[in-house]
Amino acid sequence: FIILIPVRYFSNPIGRQTCRTHKNRKMWFWIFFTCLSLALLVAVLTVLFPSLWISRVIQHFADDSLPAIGLQITYKILGKSKAETFLFYLDFLYSDFNITPYFVYLILWYIGFSYAVWAIQFYMPSPTILPLHSSMIWFYGLLSLACYIMAAIKDPGVITAKYAASYREFYPYDNIYYSPGKICTACNFERPARSHHCRSCKRCISKFDHHCRWLNNCIGEGNYVEFEIFLLVHSFLSMYALWVINEGVSGLALQFGLDDPDVIYYQYVEGNILGWPRILMKYTFIIQHNPSIFIALFCFAALAILLGSFCVINLYEASMNMTGNEKRKKANFRRKYNKHMEQISKMIDFRENEHLCSEPVDLDEELNNDEDLKKTVEEYDLREKTIEQLQSTLEEVVAEFQKLDEVSIYDKGSSENLREFFHPFVPYIVKEPTETDNNV
User: Fold this and answer.
1) CA angle at residue 213 from 231 to 217, to 5 degrees?
2) How many angstroms separate the CA atoms of 253 and 298, rounded?
């Protein structure tokens, strides 16, 4: 909306009728700009601060309400049989290892790279673009493809039974998110701390962050650096493409005389459009002659912002020695303990009402009406507990909740965390103790 509304406005002939609606159009422009800015701010806060109430509301909506709404819409639009077929293929793309993302990326890469090469040829010769950039775009394009292949084929840190013991020695259990004794039934060994079994790759990954659909590979200890390079190169390539397009537009503006103050005054200022920046007028004129520039600007700007932000967030988490999986675990544990504290407090209120009114509360009816209360009562066995026992249980849950805010045992300081990030752990074979070693 930020770009589309001014383009739609300036594409009309500048006359008195347009000038009379200028204030209303400008008002709608700022309304859309404010809404988009607020949405972006909420998205950033949700990612960086998952414990905020707005983050919890969005997470609850995304986890519970949104999938149900999406299923209803899918069945209503496609019908039962087509919807089930669509969901089958969607589950295949999400849950199973397949090569479809490779083709999708290569197609998008080819489209973006071809447009960038065409755009430079379109602008050349230009007084603002050096001929060197005709070669540079080939260098950056092939570099981005090489980074993608490197991150896609690199081992993310697959844990096998042969090396699992070394991972258990190197990463201690914190007894909060990771506890000893948990067996991975698929891989058939005790799961080390900071590992996760990926259901798409069907393997355990050390320091698992997430499964990247674009790379069709897990992001873990083994390829985290390559993934960061992939994000950095693609975000830089998007910013470079934006800069080339801007220089090309400036060159065309010089050729058309749009940088001449008299031309600008005659075409726009006499139309009473004094509030628009000069650069927007220049872009509007160029977009009218070549609309594909608008699409390219939007796509490259979105890529630069999204990939650049993702790269910065990942580096920030690496400086704290925290993975995306652990960040999600922390948010889930916070929601879980908040629910438990709320339900235990409700049980204490039930017991106090029984004591004051001398009438027993129909607990079965309450459990049938409240699923969260039922889960808490079953997990902590609260049905027969007294008020004092419930208060003791509540204190234990509060203590567990406060542990989440303590400094992680894996956080060794920013410098040491980044050193571990760039020099990941190399597994080794742990020698099993023999009878001779035991006798000694």
Assistant:
1) 80
2) 20
